[in-house]
From TrEMBL:
GO MF annotation list: ATP binding; phosphorelay sensor kinase activity; protein dimerization activity
Transmembrane segment boundaries: 20-40, 140-159
Keyword Transferase: yes
Matches recorded under SMART domains: HATPase_c (SM00387)
Single GO cellular component term: membrane
Name used for this protein in its record: histidine kinase
The reaction(s) this protein catalyses: ATP + protein L-histidine = ADP + protein N-phospho-L-histidine
InterPro entries attached to this UniProt entry: DUF7134 (IPR055558), HATPase_C_sf (IPR036890), HATPase_dom (IPR003594), Sensor_HK_TwoCompSys (IPR050482), Sig_transdc_His_kin_sub3_dim/P (IPR011712)
């Protein structure tokens, strides 16, 4: 039966346990190891004294403080161990405490402390072996190898701990970056929804206001025209509601069996209908002109093209006091150029307001550009260039 299923949980519990409890248990274990010669005195022929036991205990008890004061603990054990070897009652067959403090210093000590301790123990082991009665060559190798191995395990533990800390820090950074990306995406989506709602509501309300102002004037003299005005108000309201459902559909969970909440957003193909509705509802002569060969546009660019024309016509209805307007679609190799020109009184302070800001933001978000100002023959003109799908990446870069 494999030992792996219980080794990992045991190591995790040991790592997360109270360090003082663990160090006390380790000190008790080392004290037990150095006391074995007194527990089983008949197993060897070394001379035993109570002073020798106290010196042996001095190599174990300081380990209780090995993590609170690692360098001081290492010095205490480093002094007691050669004293025990010189006193020789009994000699230290295995340097249990020394190996523990070397591991601790390699793990927790400062660089200069680690170097001093390793060099001191290597030199100390070599010198104290000279006081051993009839030392054998393999005993030199055994003790020196024990020192090096204990220190090496400590280095591995330190490197592993640093690597784990780096991984955890990287995971925290990635989590923060992911949260920041999510927050930016939410902010961008909210901004997009706000622009769409502004365009839809401003357009619909402008048409409704125009018709509502005209209705009372002709209600007695021309009832049929008044009725048409009220029909136009209702149609504008219904169209606004339908578009708002499209916009807010992204905030809803998918409906069982589909539904109209996920209707596609309007694009270039819906511009003739938009132009027709504005002409009928606002009494504005609007002409749509198209030149060039249509090219594929990204979905958000399609929506931006529709909203740009919608907002430009809304500004014409609200601010320009124009009698006619022209919407031009110029398809080129690089994409689409939209031009909306009216014959109104031209730009004034605050002309377009937030609408023109929204037009510029939409164009920039798609990698395009926008400008607005007085037209070549007076009036007001909005020009927006939107890149085609193949040129989108270069435009955004």
């Amino acid at each position: 039966m494999s030992a792996r299923p219980w080794i990992a949980p045991a190591a995790e519990r040991l790592r997360t346990a109270d360090p003082y409890v663990v160090d006390s248990a380790l000190a008790a274990l080392v004290l037990f190891a150095v006391s074995l010669q007194w527990i089983f005195p008949d197993e060897g022929d070394d001379r035993l004294t109570w002073q020798g036991w106290l010196i042996g205990a001095a190599t174990a008890l300081p380990l209780v403080w090995r993590r609170r004061a690692p360098f001081a603990t290492a010095w205490a054990v480093s002094v007691a161990t050669p004293v025990q070897a010189v006193y020789h009652a009994p000699p230290p067959d295995v340097m249990y405490g020394g190996m523990v403090v070397l591991y601790t210093m390699a793990t927790l000590g400062k660089p200069w402390q680690r170097r001093v301790m390793l060099a001191g123990w290597l030199a100390g082991v070599s010198l104290t072996m000279l006081h051993k009665e009839d030392p054998q060559p393999f005993e030199y190798a055994f003790h020196l190898l024990g020192v090096v191995c204990a220190y090496g395990f400590g280095v591995l533990a330190r490197v592993r701990r640093a690597y784990t800390a780096e991984l955890e820090d990287r995971a925290r950074r990635l989590e923060r970056e992911r949260a920041a990306d999510t927050a930016r995406a939410i902010a961008q989506e909210r901004s997009r929804i706000a622009r769409d709602m502004h365009d839809v509501l401003a357009h619909a309300v402008s048409l409704m206001v125009v018709q509502a102002e005209a209705g009372p004037v002709v209600v007695r003299s021309d009832p049929a025209r008044a009725e048409a005005s009220f029909d136009a108000i209702a149609a504008a309201g219904r169209d606004a509601m339908a578009q708002l459902r499209r916009i807010l559909g992204v905030l809803k969970e998918p409906q069982a069996g589909g539904g109209s909440w996920r209707l596609p957003q309007p694009g270039v193909a819906e511009l003739p209908g938009l132009v027709g509705r504005v002409g009928e509802s606002a009494g504005l002569r609007v002409e749509l002109r198209t030149s060039g060969t249509p090219r594929p546009l990204p979905q958000d660019t399609e929506v931006a093209a529709f909203r740009v024309v919608q907002e430009a016509l809304t500004n014409t209805v609200k601010h320009a006091r124009a009698g006619s307007a022209t919407v031009e679609l110029d398809w080129t190799e690089g994409g689409l150029t939209l031009t909306v020109t009216d014959d109104g009184h031209g730009p004034t302070a605050g002309h377009g307001g937030h609408g023109l800001i929204g037009i510029r933001e939409r164009a920039a978000a798609c990698g395009g550009s926008a400008r607005a100002g007085r037209g070549p023959e007076g009036g007001f003109q909005v020009v927006v260039r939107l890149p085609a799908a193949v040129d989108r990446q270069a435009a955004l870069g």
